[in-house]
Specification:
Elements lengths: L13 H13 L7 H10 L17 H16 L22 H7 L7 E3 L3 E3 L1
Antiparallel strand pairs: 1-2
C-alpha cells in the first residue's frame, strides 16, 4: 500500500519530511523498515536555534549527507532497494546531463535544499 505524502508539522522539519516523502513515493509502506524511519528522525533536526534550542534551525547539510550515505548503505545491506547520492555545488542543476534530471526521469526522487526566505528542503 502506498502512503500519502506528508506535510511538515513544524516550521523546522522540512528535511525529515522531504526524506520521508521521497521514501513514501518510492516504496510501499510494507517495504519501509522501522529502522529507516527511526534513523531519519534521529539524525535530522540537528541544528540549534538562536536561543540554543535543539532542532530549531532544522537539518544541516552534514546530516543530509550522512543520511544519504546511510540510506545507500542500507540499500547495499538489503534493507531497501535504494541508491542515494549527495550532490552539492555545480553538479546541482536542472539541465542537459543533469544527475537530478536523470534520477527524476528514471522514476527516482530528489530532495533539494533551496533558499525561500531562508534555507528549506523540498
Amino acid at each position: 500500500m502506498k502512503n500519502p505524502l506528508h506535510y511538515q508539522i513544524s516550521e523546522y522539519d522540512c528535511g525529515p519530511t522531504s526524506l520521508l516523502n521521497g521514501l513514501s513515493f518510492l516504496f510501499q509502506r510494507e517495504e519501509i523498515q522501522p529502522e529507516i524511519l527511526r534513523n531519519i528522525m534521529l539524525y535530522s533536526l540537528d541544528c540549534y536555534g538562536k536561543e540554543g534550542m535543539a532542532g530549531q534551525s532544522g537539518t544541516s547539510r552534514m546530516a543530509m549527507m550522512f543520511l544519504s550515505r546511510w540510506l545507500c548503505g542500507a540499500g547495499k545491506a538489503g534493507l531497501l532497494p535504494i541508491e542515494c547520492r549527495y550532490l552539492s555545488g555545480k553538479p546541482v542543476y536542472m539541465g542537459r546531463d543533469s544527475l537530478v534530471v536523470d534520477a527524476l526521469c528514471r522514476g527516482g526522487v530528489a530532495v533539494v535544499r533551496l533558499n525561500m526566505d531562508g534555507e528549506h528542503y523540498v
